[in-house]
Amino acid sequence: MVNLLPGPIEAEGWVCPAPLRDSPTIVMGHGGGGALSAELVEHLFLPAFGPAARGAGLGDAAVVPVGGVRLAMSTDSYVVKPLFFPGGSIGDLAVNGTVNDLSMSGARPLVLSTAFILAEGTRLTDLARVAGDMGRAALAAGVRLVTGDTKVVDAGSGDGVFVNTTGLGLVADGVDIRPERARPDDVVIVSGDIGVHGVAVLSCREGLEFGTAVRSDTAPLHGLVADLLATGADVHTLRDPTRGGVAATLNEIARAAGVGIEVTERALPIPAAVRDACGLLGLDPLYVANEGKLVAFVPPGHADRVLAAMRAHEYGRDAAVIGQCVPEHPGMVVARTGLGGTRVIDMPLGEQLPRIC
């Protein structure tokens, strides 16, 4: 290699911009919802849990039979930075996120728990604002906040406010929505514009302002899901594409179901402001987080009624068909480009935008 720099090359202290997969310590990418997150679960948590985790699903919510009914349960933690961003805050994000995770199993959300980890020195006015946003979001979603916990850590050990929410919901008889149910020929539908939440959060981070007016899409999606199920369509799979964006979600489903997925790039609903921001920062909108969108996999004969039901709902007005499942290249997602070629949409290793939810 020819050295074009003055003086000798000093490699000591260099770091790789992408986290190494054999890192002996936790890196930010482990929390990104991509390949590193999946490896952490598969190779550390599940073996460590042993028989206690036998039969555990790897989705965002687990459906468990209890006393003659089926309960869905989900838990999630929120560490978004900053706490308040255009269109929302960590408070409504925590409620809507868990409501949506329950909804993606077809459940009707019922109750949530709330747990706070607070850094010493956090302003009480900020905490009150977060709690107020949570209360209003729960009321809007029709769920009750029934129990909770609060812990405080030393100044510098945390970062303001971290929130965990756990939710329970009820799954009706006959509803079977799982990633494994995706089938070849299934039509893939997204409920609206993608990449909005990630760009909204990024727009207000110090040093990264670029003047966009994008607001987060954080919203509860259980009403939209209920409308889809009311059509009588056989909804195979639902997911909300949060961390890792649409790309991570499609890859997870492709691998779980053993199908290939082909996406048409021109059909992707990407707002101009999101496209411009991603172009400026070198990001791919497919990998940017969403908090008020879902991806649905349905048989081709049911796609029209599902699409119509989405577009009739306030949170699905811009719904679009973006692709379909195919028997070829199982476990892989590819995109048909505007030039007629194809490109592989791989599972992200870590996360383009850390601390996004």
Automatic annotation (TrEMBL):
Protein name (record): Hydrogenase expression/formation protein HypE
Ranges that cross the membrane: none
Residue stretches making up the PurM-like N-terminal domain: 60-171
Protein family per UniProt: Belongs to the HypE family.
Organism, as annotated: Virgisporangium aurantiacum
CDD domains: HypE (cd02197)
GO biological process: protein maturation
One Pfam family linked to the record: AIRS_C
InterPro entries: HypE (IPR011854), PurM-like_C_dom (IPR010918), PurM-like_C_sf (IPR036676), PurM-like_N (IPR016188), PurM-like_N_sf (IPR036921)
Start and end residues of each PurM-like C-terminal domain: 183-329
Domain of life, per lineage: Bacteria
